[in-house]
Amino acid sequence: MSVVACVIPAYDAAATLAEVVRGLRVALPGALLIAVDDGSGDGTHDVAASCCDRAVRFRENRGKGAALRAGFEVAHAECARAVITIDADGQHDPARAPALLAALADADIVIGTRARTPGTMPLGRRVTNALASAAMGVIAGVSVPDAQSGYRAIRREVLADVRASGDRYEYETEFLIAAMRAGYRIGSVGVPTMYGAPSHFRAWGDSVLVVRAIWRQRAGGVS
Q1: Cα distance between residue 8 and residue 25, in whole Å
Q2: Torsion angle of C-alpha atoms 35, 39, 44, 49, degrees rounded to 10
């Protein structure tokens, strides 16, 4: 059980996915690269099939949470000892993946923490991120500097033990809160804030889902 898996949820990412994969091949030689095409309308699946080790395809869009769960299932079946989650749109620097993995020596989940400053992160994302991070701190009693970052390293044990609901961006929030409540250690590593291709995060709709996820956890658990 020595393989490291990289799970790459991808939606309409044909223009950026291959570059992300190339960066991961350099940063993590030998890693198992798993792309999950979340019902894309472009050539994302063809790109994934040509450059990744595993390519899962949804016929219709289900959401990032559903894509992550599907990727985790493949990683588990392949006996991965750890999983890196990284977006397909080029907004995460693959070169930082080894640093996230190394930080698992002292943590169970490591979050790639971005600078939450004007000019580096859009205003709507800064507000949502700050509120989610603060709320998580209150609920779980652990400070989380970038609760919304999808760039993470996760131990196999956490993936086997933690369950979270939600099919879209709220899944990552619920997963993190559930892991903290289960006593898993959260670490962080600074990563560049890179915004190139437009994010699929819906500033209003997905923010509401994240807030609801936090409220459910505050009320006593995942529903």
Answers
A1: 13
A2: 50
Q: Measuring CA to CA, which residue among 98, 36, 30 is closest to residue 61?
A: 36
Residue 29 lies in domain: 4-219
Q: How many domains does the chain have?
A: 1
Half-sphere exposure (CA, 13 Å, Cβ side) for 126?
10
pLDDT in tens, 165-196: 888 888 998 898 889 889 999 999 999 877 65
90 vs 96: CA distance, rounded Å:
13
Q: Residue 170 in 3-state DSSP?
A: helix
- Per the CB < 8 A criterion, the answer to whether 27 and 94 are in contact is yes
Q: What is the model's pTM?
A: 0.82
Query: Which residue ranges of the chain lie beneath pLDDT 50?
Result: 203-204, 206, 219, 222-223
Give me the CATH number covering residue 101.
3.90.550.10
Integer distance in angstroms from the first to the last C-alpha of the chain?
33
